[in-house]
Fold:
Amino acid sequence: MKYKKITQLENIDLDDSMILEGDALHALRLIPPKSVQCVITSPPYWGLRDYNIEGQIGLEQTLSQFLNHLVAVFDEIKRVLKDDGTVWLNIGDGYTSGNRGYRAMDKKNPARAMTVRPDTPEGLKPKDMLGLPWRLAFALQDDGWYLRSDIVWHKPNAMPESVKDRPTRSHEYLFMLTKSERYLYNEEAVREYGNNGKKRSKRSVWSIHTKAFTGAHFATFPVELIEPCVLASTNPGDFVLDPFFGSGTVGVASFRNNRRYLGIELHPEYVEIAAKRLQITEDRIVKVAV
Structure:
């Protein structure tokens, strides 16, 4: 695949959907200020996956370093987001490693195997839940973001777990954050039917099945989780940004609803997967030089 290359001294001319290949922090600095209406993203979770690429987020030595890394990324997101813009942040939790420096292969999911894992964070114990989603949400709130809602993504078809001393997890969080006190939110666009058959305001528990994408060997979030965010927080033609683009699900949801997307992805393999999935032309893929 051929790429257009740009240096850190240039700005991107946002006139249509595109994918930027490169580090999220560096790529974000090329985007004009206040040019994005909505951000929908699921950053890598800490200590759960090794994507085998230099510069990846998620394998920092400490939990604090991971949180600080993401806060820095979201500082740049705040700069490129319009004043009435919204962020939808999907993040899952995990458990301490017990200072085991590896994770064995899962027969159903070989990509879960890791040869390196961060140590148990200071102040936590072996088998402790990290509380990562709320730690990140509060860190962003402390950094000036408005924390407006916590949505529980209930997974009816959640993967079974081998543990026998706690309930199997079947949910993740989707946080709604805003840059300003007042922001765009189209309540009518996301109204849902209640048990009485009448439409009501959307509730904060969303039951949505996980769906595998055959072109990828890593976790993807479903389009059905993304579309309500797109409809509630944008108008047709607006830009939707995902700084951790992966297989391009945010792009799919945006395109379906007549919005433009801007995806940032570090891993060249995933850029190629997303490009094929979205049928995007080569001139709309930009490799960011560091």
User: Anything to note?
Assistant: DSSP finds six helices and twelve strands in the chain.
